[in-house]
Design brief:
The chain has 242 residues and is of the alpha/beta class. 35% of the residues lie in helices and 25% in strands. The strands form two sheets. It has a six-stranded mixed sheet, sandwiched between helices. The structure holds adenosine-5'-triphosphate (ATP) and magnesium ion.
Length: 242
């Protein structure tokens, strides 16, 4: 379970994340939706201790991420798929992660198979990877420690339709086994088919959250897309350049 309580992040006088609170439940897929610059990545970075909140707290299993013993075995993270070492092969990236988190080597082959990277692809250097291949490698890295929680920032970015379908199945399966999934997107279409729950952020603030059914009921004839567009447009701040 993931909890954010009154998370706030300021950069100088600019408030990127403003009093954000939510709970992400196990056994469900939670979509974190918001337009560019809404604060999704900033929230996710605070969840895993990569950015310090100006105010508020983020907990995983009831503790700050940094206080978890061997967090790599409990929480799988994909924040920036481009952040892999470009000079290493995909297999080397995963093997190093396995060594660092104490995961047995055989797991590298397992996750490569799960994300559909072939032996040949895994032997290529990451700098030569396509965006979709990089994304698959990032997901493989997140799955490596057989975690209970997945935190994925825009994991569908760069995936082709088959890749998006594959990822949906993967995340639904992960949640069905009791896992907790938080995935962000700026596109409702990417997550509405997979998300049980939705958290919508605009201008650093939560503008809607609930189960997809609740939000669909709230939207009525207007539909989710229009509802969220209205809600996030009305929170856009002056001085924020999209
Ligand atoms: N280090 C920083 N210094 C100053 N402002 C920042 C910093 N990091 C993020 N911001 C600002 O905080 C706001 C939220 O950014 P964030 O990256 O969290 O948005 P996002 O929802 O992930 O957007 P996207 O869909 O484009 O990935 C933006 O206005 C961004 O410019
Ligand atoms: Mg982002």
């Amino acid at each position: 379970m993931i909890t954010a309580e009154h998370l706030t992040r300021r950069y100088g006088t600019f408030t990127a994340v403003d009093d954000v609170s939510f709970t992400v439940e196990p056994g469900r897929v939670t979509g974190f939706l918001g337009p560019n610059g809404a604060g999704k990545s900033t929230v996710m970075r605070m969840l895993v201790g990569l950015s310090r909140p100006t105010a508020g707290v983020a907990h995983l299993f009831g503790r700050p991420y940094a206080a978890l013993p061997n967090p790599g075995r409990r929480v799988g993270i994909l924040l920036d798929a481009a952040a892999q070492h470009a000079g290493r092969t995909g297999r080397e990236v995963l093997t190093l992660s396995a060594l660092m988190t104490g995961v047995e080597r055989a797991r590298v082959d397992e996750v490569l198979a799960v994300v559909g990277l072939t032996d040949k692809e895994a032997a290529r250097r990451v700098r030569n990877y396509s965006l979709g291949m990089r994304q698959r490698l990032g997901i493989a890295n997140a799955l490596l420690g057989d975690p209970e929680v997945l935190i994925l920032d825009e994991p569908a970015n760069g995936l082709d339709p088959a890749g998006i379908r594959w990822m949906r199945a993967l995340l639904s399966g992960f949640a069905a086994k009791g896992g907790t999934v938080l995935l962000s997107s700026h596109l409702l279409s990417e997550i509405e088919k997979v998300a049980d729950d939705l958290i919508v952020i605009g201008g650093g603030r939560i503008v809607a959250q609930g189960t997809q059914e609740e939000l669909l009921a709230q939207a009525g004839d207007q539909g989710l897309e229009e509802l969220f567009f209205d809600l996030t447009a009305s929170t856009a701040r002056e001085g924020v350049v999209a």
